[in-house]
Amino acid sequence: MLVDLNDLLSGEFDRKTKTLILLNFNDASPKAVKEIKELGKANGLREIEKWNISMVLSSLKGYASKLKDGWTLTSKGKKHLEELKIIGKSPIIIHHKNLSEQAKKIKSQYVQDFINEAIISLEYKLLKSAVVFSWIGAISTIYEFIVKNELSDFNTEAKRRLPKWKTASNIDGLTRMKEYDFLQVVEGIGIIGKNTKNELESCLKLRNSCGHPSTLKIGENKVAAHIEILILNVYKPFS
Predict the structure, then answer these.
(1) Less crowded by CB within 10 Å, the N or C end of the chain?
(2) What angle do CA 160, 165, 166 make, to 5 degrees?
(3) DSSP code, position 31
(4) Which pLDDT belongs to residue 3?
(5) Which residues of the chain have pLDDT under 50?
(6) Measured between alpha carbons, how far is 26 from 28 in angstroms, rounded to an integer?
């Protein structure tokens, strides 16, 4: 990544574009003026020492915005870099479309509501919210499938693994089980395979990390990978 950034900053771009490139570095996380200067110098842009970065940033109206933690690219700024072929399309833009298409195929309104929340979160780049809501939509999709098709087998396996399990007759009953245990039972009755279960466990861990107060930071690629797993292994086969 450092080599790529060095190459970009050595290109024939103007001051504003190079500042946008620096803002885009590391998943476009917010950056303070001092951090932008240091990042530029560390990657060969020595003339940035003479720039009035604050003035450059203020001139990027519509392309960058100032947040509490620093400056960040706007969607217009990213689109500008995409048009210059400096960066590729954001992975979450691709999955926003995929998720939207999948939502249309889901008949359950309450499941659709969760997916729509995830879609809105992607639109506004609320990454942790997108992780949480896409997971809730996915687990709810499996709940519905179990209730309609495999409830008896599920209860039998659940009772075998968890002797204190009270027989579930609807989705509310299924939600009494911890989601980790739920995945083990679903795999136990052959609804999903071991590898799929392992990937969904990883998605669950990310969901838990994003759904509780923590210092965890995630980027667009992480969210895109999370949603891709859910689309391919839950939404498509179970909707």
Answers:
(1) N
(2) 130
(3) B
(4) 36
(5) 1-3
(6) 5
Cβ atoms 142, 126 nearer than 8 A: no
Q: 132: alpha, beta or left, given left = phi > 0 and alpha = psi -120 to 50?
A: alpha
User: In this predicted structure, what is the pLDDT of residue 2?
Assistant: 34
Give residue 92's pLDDT: 65
Rounded Cα distance, 111 and 133, in Å: 10
Residues in the chain: 239
Structure tokens at 26: 């590391």
Sign of the Cα torsion 201, 205, 206, 212 reads positive
- How many angstroms separate the CA atoms of 192 and 201, rounded? 12
Residue at 38: amino acid letter: E
Quote the distance between the C-alpha of residue 153 and its chain's center: 33
Give ∠ CA 97-99-100 in degrees, rounded to 5: 65
